[in-house]
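User: Fold this one for me? It's Naphthoate synthase.
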Amino acid sequence: MTYKTLLLDKKDGIATITLNRPEKKNAMSPQLHEEMVRLLDDLRYDDAARVLVITGAGSAFCAGMDLKEFFTDLKPHPQEYDRIWRIATEWRTRTLRYYPKPTIAMINGFCFGGAFSLVEGCDLAIAADEATFGLSEINFKLFPGGSVSKSLANLLRPRDALWYGMLGRPFGGQIAAEIGFINKSVPAAELLNETMTVARELAQKDPWALKATKEGYRFSLEMSWEAAMSYSSAKEMELVLRQGDAWRTEGIGDFLKGEYRPGLEAHGSKKR
Ligand code: ACO
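Assistant: Here's what I get for Naphthoate synthase.
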């Protein structure tokens, strides 16, 4: 499968997807949305992709929706506008949120508007200190539409969501980390190394346990205590089936043999 708006690199179990419209600051065009849906579907079943990293080519991570190709060009075509609106919101939110593999947003530069939902949909997010974030919608007389308002409500404290949403002021990577929108911010020169270190660490962990970790967290958010306990118990049984009980036989088994200390290191990473 070839893509015009995306680049794909696979190495050491890590699939790096690069939004590749640098001349348009990686704004998300209808074609980019369609290609991303296909690529995420491909990687879902690709055993060589244990962890996904999403980043941008050139000076931008993603300048949000393509203001011309989406909002302007599709205005006379309401059905096509609706179709693209639906897939654009779906992949950045539900598809990424419930993706069966860990996902990391590596924010290398400009990150505006609709790109906030992409970042929120990823499990982890690491930015360059030099990156520029902004809810720019208000600056052009819009509001954080599509899935963006929900992404803000999911991740940010009310004061921060309304401050940045209503003022539209840009902010850097360190502020993005301080307000909890991302995990951490590092100098641009260290961004790739820092992100790949985290990705490699995830790629070494048991994929079924990682999937259960994501799902346990994400689905519990919307469940009653009773439902969450029942779900968790069922998940434990699913894990036993999926892994062949490796968490008990190998994970706990090797600890009980004194071979490693799971409080301090991952199974298989080090022997005492
Ligand atoms: N949609 C479409 N085209 C875009 C977008 C966008 N979101 N962002 C940048 N571009 C295009 C520019 O029109 C320009 O195209 P051209 O060379 O054909 O004229 C090219 O990318 C480069 O952009 P410049 O403005 O020349 O680059 P600069 O470095 O000066 O500024 C910046 C970059 C800050 C990203 C600026 O382009 C900008 O403010 N873009 C809009 C950001 C935005 O508000 N995004 C929408 C968020 S809301 C939402 O997603 C629903």
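One thing worth pointing out: The first strand starts at residue 6 and ends at 11.
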